[in-house]
Design brief:
The chain is an alpha/beta fold and 254 residues long. The chain is built from 11 helices and 8 strands. Bound molecules: adenosine-5'-diphosphate (ADP) and magnesium ion (MG).
Length: 254
C-alpha cells in the first residue's frame, strides 16, 4: 500500500478534482484504492457519494469508529471512500493528535489496498501537517489560471519542515498543472513550473467544464463524460502516475 497526500495550501488549485478523478482512474485500471477526504468542506465526499453514509473520518480520528466501519463503496468498483465532514474542523487546530491517529487508521486498512489518496484542506493546519507526516508522498495540483506560485513556495517550505522533523521518507510525487488554457498567463505559469520542478511535473489537465460539472452528478469524469478532454487528461495522468510510481516500486523492491 502506498499513500499520497493531494495538497496545496491554495484553495481552488484542483486538489479535490485530482483526488477524485485520479483515484477513479487508478481503480478503473484495476488497482484497489481508498480516498480519504480530510477536508472539513468534504468536497470529495459530495463529489463521489449521492447517498448518506455511515460515519466519517471525524468519528474515526476521534476513535469512535473503526476505519472499516466508515469505508463506503462508490460507483467505481475498486474505489472506496473514507468520507469527510465539517466535524473534521476541530482536528485542524492542533488540539488533537491528528498525525498519530491518522497513521493508526492507515495501518488498519485491509492489506489488499494498493493506493490511498488523501484529499487535504487548503489550510496550513494540523490536518495538512498530520497528513504529510504519515504518507509516502505528496502530489501537488497547481491552477495555471492565477499567478500565485509564491503560495506553492510556502507549501514547499511546509513539506521541507515535515521532511526534516516528522517524516523523512516524504517525497514529492509530482506537480500537476491544472486548468490550463490558451492564455499567456497559463503558458507562463506552466513553463515556470517546468523550469522549477523539472521532470516531476506531469502533463497538464486542461480547463474543461465537464470536470466542474462531474461533482454535481456525484461521479468521476470517467463515468459522467467519458469522451471529454477532462476524461482524456485524467486517463493520461493515471497512465503516467502508474508508470512512474510502479516503476519506482519495482526498482525499490527488485
Ligand atoms: N481542469 C478543470 N477544468 C474546469 N474546472 C475545474 C478544473 N479543475 C478544477 N475545476 C473546478 O475548480 C473548482 C476548484 O477545484 P477543486 O478541485 O475543488 O480545488 P481544491 O480542492 O484545490 O479547492 C471546482 O469548482 C472544480 O470543479
Ligand atoms: Mg478541495
Amino acid at each position: 500500500m502506498r499513500s499520497y497526500a493531494i495538497a496545496n495550501i491554495k484553495g481552488g488549485s484542483g486538489k479535490t478534482t485530482v483526488a477524485v478523478n485520479l483515484a477513479a482512474g487508478l481503480a478503473l485500471a484495476g488497482r484497489k484504492v481508498v480516498l480519504f477526504d480530510l477536508d472539513p468542506q468534504a468536497s470529495s465526499t459530495f463529489h463521489l457519494l449521492p447517498q448518506s453514509h455511515n460515519g466519517n473520518l471525524a468519528d474515526s480520528l476521534a476513535g469512535e469508529k473503526k476505519i472499516d466501519d466508515i469505508l463506503t463503496g462508490t460507483l467505481v468498483s475498486g474505489l472506496q471512500l473514507a468520507p469527510g465532514s465539517r466535524l473534521l474542523a476541530p482536528f485542524d487546530n492542533g488540539a488533537h493528535p491528528t498525525r498519530d491517529r491518522l497513521s493508526h487508521l492507515l495501518a488498519q486498512l485491509p492489506e489488499d489496498i494498493d493506493y490511498v489518496l488523501l484529499d487535504t484542506p487548503p489550510t496550513w493546519g494540523s490536518l495538512l501537517v498530520g497528513t504529510l507526516s504519515c504518507v509516502d508522498a505528496v502530489l501537488i495540483p497547481v491552477s495555471t489560471r492565477e499567478l500565485d506560485l509564491h503560495i506553492l513556495g510556502l507549501l514547499m517550505d511546509v513539506i521541507d519542515q515535515v521532511k526534516r522533523h516528522r517524516n523523512s521518507r516524504l517525497r514529492i510525487a509530482g506537480v500537476v498543472p491544472n486548468r490550463t488554457v490558451h492564455t499567456r498567463l497559463s503558458a507562463k505559469v506552466e513553463a515556470s513550473l517546468r523550469e522549477t520542478y523539472g521532470a516531476s511535473v506531469y502533463g497538464p489537465v486542461r480547463e474543461n467544464a465537464r470536470l466542474a460539472e462531474a461533482g454535481g452528478f456525484h461521479a468521476p469524469i470517467q463515468i459522467t463524460a467519458p469522451s471529454s478532454t477532462g476524461a482524456e487528461d485524467f486517463a493520461e495522468l493515471t497512465r503516467c502516475f502508474l508508470d512512474r510510481e510502479e516503476m519506482r516500486f519495482r526498482d525499490l523492491t527488485g
